[in-house]
Design brief:
Elements lengths: L1 H12 L38 E4 L14 H13 L1 H21 L5 E14 L7 E17 L4 H67 L5 H35 L22 E4 L2 H7 L1 H22 L4 E12 L2 H4 L5 E10 L7 H67 L5 H35 L12 H4 L7
Parallel strand pairs: 1-4
Antiparallel strand pairs: 2-3, 3-5, 5-6
Helix pairs in contact: 2-4, 3-4, 4-5, 4-7, 4-10, 7-9, 9-10
Amino acid sequence: MRFTALLLLGGQLSACAVGPDFLRPAPPGGGALPALPGVTASTGTTGGGAQRLLPGRDIQGDWWKLFGSPQIEALVAQALRANPDLAAAQATLREARENTRAGQGGFFPSVTANLSTSRQRQSLAAAGGGSALYSLTAGSVDVSYTLDAFGGVRRQVEQLGAQADYQRHELEAAYLSLTANLVTALLTESSLKAQVDTTKSLIALYTDALEITRRRFALGGVSQADVLQQQASLAAQVATLPGLEKQYAQQRNLVARYLGGLPGAYTAPTLDLAKLTLPTDLPVSLPSQIVRQRPDILAYEALLHAATANVGIATANLYPQFTLSASYGRTGTDLSKLFTPAGLVWSVAGALAQPLFEGGTLRAKQRAAKAALEAAAAQYSSTLNIAFQNVADVLVAIEADARTLRAQADAERTAAASLAVARAQFAAGATTTLNLLQAQQTYQTARLQLVNAQAARFIDTVALYQSLGGGWWNRKDVDPAVDACCGVLK
């Protein structure tokens, strides 16, 4: 009864925990995001559709399906199954979860069962000679409980739980990075393939122009210098092809890595941008939503929580440690005597340990924990600033790149018409080689820039979904047994 009373007293003492309690940082107020038009510019080309920005709209977890590409959906599904970085993040989360459970064991008494038997020979020389030979059997149940009087154990469990939360959000960040990087890599691969094809068509165009120049030279219509100029222009165009082909091959190697395989295993055809659907309605989350959606912000919030709990741990270590222990058992020289009244043994004990002199170690650790808390707060603030910069940059890019694509489409159409006129005039001898070369270069630049501008519209859309958190709260991509560990906000 006395031991039970001491346990109840310990529970009452454990109701308080020293150190600061964690308070979630307040979300930023107004002015965090720029004011943008509700609808972007549009033009009649690939990726040229108008997009509406809808504040407060929720984000679907499988946002990549909005592009309407079965191939993208299949490759994302493959990456989510096979990417080793995700497997590592899952395992790290399970480790953090089990560490939290292990820490929770400090809330309960430690109970140990002991059983021993021995055969002994004892000298009786001091009593007149001879010896005694006997067996000794002993069994006991020992209970030990350290009272969490100042909340040190509670703060340790709180810290472990915050670290598990951190790993949970790191896992979501890994999923988001993988899906966004994979879709971006596929779009970039498509853009590079289009640039390679465009360059090959331009080489054919320059080759045809060189043949026209040579025929005119044979007829005395142009000089040898004109032929050499056209040859140099063709050679310069040919020289750009290997670099584009190198980038294209390297991009496919990158896609293969995201898919969790080796470069040779990726044999899927390159996406055709013209067959993709540019999402019309785009979500724009409110600042208060962004801080609850971005995995990086949530991860650094968890680190801030862990640092706060660590201050409590360091503070609790300055106070006394109360330990209660009890033992109940039996002992005897044979089994028949083990359960007799004479064989009963028990003990109850209490201990108090108060640090008196540690050479300043405990106080220094407390100050270090407070400094770490200040660092975690600064890192959280920096992460928040970077996150909102990402969102603002993407919103600006969506609106600006829509206008860029419209201008590039107009430029490409004008350059194509100008080149057609210059070629016809040159073939008829009505213009100079220099004018033809200028028209060719203008058209080449316009064609390649148009391809880049088309891809940018799709890539900007991916970047927006990534910057807003990717809708992970609407996606079940984690083993339910692992997902239940960390109390993630839904």
